[in-house]
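[recover] target loaded
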C-alpha cells in the first residue's frame, strides 16, 4: 500500500511539472446524469489524493471500532486462560500435599478456557480417585480423552475397567487395540500389566520384547514383570529336570534384560533344583574370571544360591588366590563359599583379610554372621556395629554427591 501511495504522488508530480513546462492547463471533463464537472489535471489529482486520505481515515476508524470488541474478547479469553493455568498449578501443589478436595476443585476451575484441558481432567481424576469417588474419577478420565483419537479413548476405557476390577473385559479391549496396532507403546504397557494381574504368563512373555522396544516402561518395572513371568516356567522345567529348556528360557530373558543379576540368579537356582550343579559351577567360574562381574552384586548372587556342594568352587578360588594373593574380591567370594560349606575357620580368615582392604557394610555383616556361628559373640556384635557405621558413611557420601 505504501508503494502504491508513493507511486501516486510521483505520478501527480510528473503531471504537474509537465503541464507547467508546456504551459498548458489541461483539464478533466466528466458528465454524469446531466451534471458536468470540469477541473484541471492537478486539481483533479489533488481531489483524488484527498479522497484517498479520507478513505484511509474512515477505514482506520471503522477498523478500530470493530476491532475493539474483538480485542476485548481476546483480553477476556487470555485472562480466563491465565486463571485456568494458575488453578492447575494450585491443584498440582494440593495433589502433592494430599489435599485431594482442593486439588479436584482447582483443577476444574476455568478448565474450558485452558489450552491443556486434558491435564486438568487427569489431575481431577487422580484427586477424585484418592477421595474414593471412582465414578467421578472415571468421568474425568474420559473427558481428558474426549478430543483425542478413538484409540486413546479406548485406552482410557481400559484403564477404567482395570480400576473397576473388570480385568477380563479390559483384557479383551486391550487385545483388540493390540491387533489394530502392534507398536502402540501405551497399549502394550497396559496389556502387559493386565496379563501380569491375570497371571497370563505365557502371553506376557510373548509381548514383553515389544513392550521393552516401544513403550516407556522403566527398567525396574520391566525387570519385575519379566521375573514374575519367567519364574513359573523355570520352576516347571526344574521339576522336570529339563536342563535344555531352562537354558533356552534363560537366553530369552537374558536378551530382554541384558544380563541382569536377578535373572541369572533365577536361572542358576533352577539348574540347582534340576540337579545340574556342574553348569552352575561353570557359570560362576566364568563370572569370577570376568572383570565386569567383580562387584558386590555377584557376591550377593553367589550367597543367595542354594549350593549344596561348594567344595569344587572353593578349591578353584583357592588356586586363583595362590596365583594372585592380592585379589581381595576373590577372598570375599571364598568367605561366602566357605560359609556354605560350614568351614567357618576358612571363612573367617578369608573375610578378615578382605576387610583390611574392602571395609564395606556387606563384608562386616558377613564376618559378623561367621563369628556368630563360631561362638565369638562379642566380635560378632562389634562387626555388626561397624557394618552400621559403614552403611551410614555410605549414605552420607550419597547425600554429599546429590548436593
Amino acid at each position: 500500500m505504501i508503494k502504491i501511495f508513493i507511486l501516486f504522488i510521483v505520478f501527480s508530480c510528473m503531471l504537474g511539472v509537465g503541464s507547467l513546462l508546456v504551459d498548458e492547463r489541461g483539464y478533466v471533463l466528466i458528465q454524469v446524469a446531466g451534471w458536468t464537472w470540469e477541473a484541471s489535471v492537478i486539481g483533479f489529482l489533488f481531489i483524488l489524493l484527498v479522497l484517498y486520505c479520507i478513505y484511509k481515515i474512515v477505514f482506520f476508524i471503522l477498523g478500530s471500532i470493530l476491532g475493539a470488541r474483538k480485542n476485548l474478547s481476546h483480553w477476556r479469553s487470555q485472562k480466563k486462560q491465565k486463571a485456568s493455568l494458575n488453578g492447575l498449578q494450585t491443584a498440582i501443589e494440593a495433589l502433592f500435599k494430599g489435599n485431594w478436595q482442593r486439588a479436584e476443585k482447582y483443577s476444574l476451575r476455568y478448565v474450558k478456557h485452558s489450552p491443556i484441558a486434558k491435564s486438568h481432567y487427569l489431575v481431577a481424576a487422580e484427586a477424585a480417585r484418592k477421595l474414593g469417588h471412582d465414578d467421578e474419577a472415571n468421568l474425568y478420565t474420559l473427558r481428558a480423552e474426549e478430543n483425542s483419537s478413538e484409540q486413546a479413548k479406548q485406552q482410557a476405557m481400559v484403564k477404567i475397567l482395570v480400576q473397576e476390577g473388570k480385568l477380563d473385559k479390559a483384557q479383551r479391549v486391550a487385545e483388540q487395540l493390540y491387533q489394530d496396532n502392534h507398536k502402540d507403546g501405551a497399549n502394550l504397557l497396559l496389556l502387559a500389566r493386565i496379563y501380569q494381574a491375570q497371571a497370563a504368563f505365557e502371553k506376557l512373555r510373548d509381548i514383553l520384547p515389544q513392550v521393552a522396544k516401544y513403550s516407556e516402561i522403566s527398567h525396574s518395572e520391566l525387570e519385575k514383570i519379566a521375573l514374575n513371568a519367567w519364574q513359573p516356567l523355570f520352576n516347571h522345567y526344574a521339576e522336570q529336570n529339563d536342563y535344555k529348556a531352562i537354558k533356552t528360557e534363560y537366553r530369552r530373558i537374558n536378551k530382554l534384560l541384558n544380563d541382569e543379576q536377578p535373572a541369572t540368579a533365577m536361572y542358576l537356582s533352577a539348574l540347582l533344583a534340576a540337579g545340574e550343579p556342574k553348569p552352575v559351577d561353570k557359570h560362576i567360574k566364568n563370572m569370577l574370571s570376568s572383570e565386569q562381574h567383580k562387584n558386590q552384586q555377584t557376591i550377593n548372587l553367589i550367597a543367595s544360591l542354594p549350593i549344596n556342594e561348594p567344595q569344587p568352587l572353593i578349591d578353584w578360588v583357592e588356586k586363583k588366590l595362590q596365583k594372585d594373593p592380592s585379589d581381595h574380591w576373590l577372598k570375599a567370594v571364598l568367605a561366602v563359599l566357605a560359609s556354605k560349606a560350614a568351614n567357618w575357620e576358612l571363612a573367617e580368615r578369608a573375610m578378615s583379610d578382605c576387610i583390611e582392604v574392602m571395609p564395606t557394610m556387606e563384608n562386616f555383616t558377613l564376618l559378623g554372621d561367621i563369628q556368630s556361628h563360631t561362638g565369638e559373640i562379642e566380635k560378632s556384635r562389634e562387626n555388626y556395629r561397624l557394618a552400621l557405621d559403614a552403611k551410614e558413611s555410605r549414605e552420607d557420601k550419597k547425600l554429599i554427591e546429590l548436593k
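[recover] notes: The chain has 19 helices and two strands.
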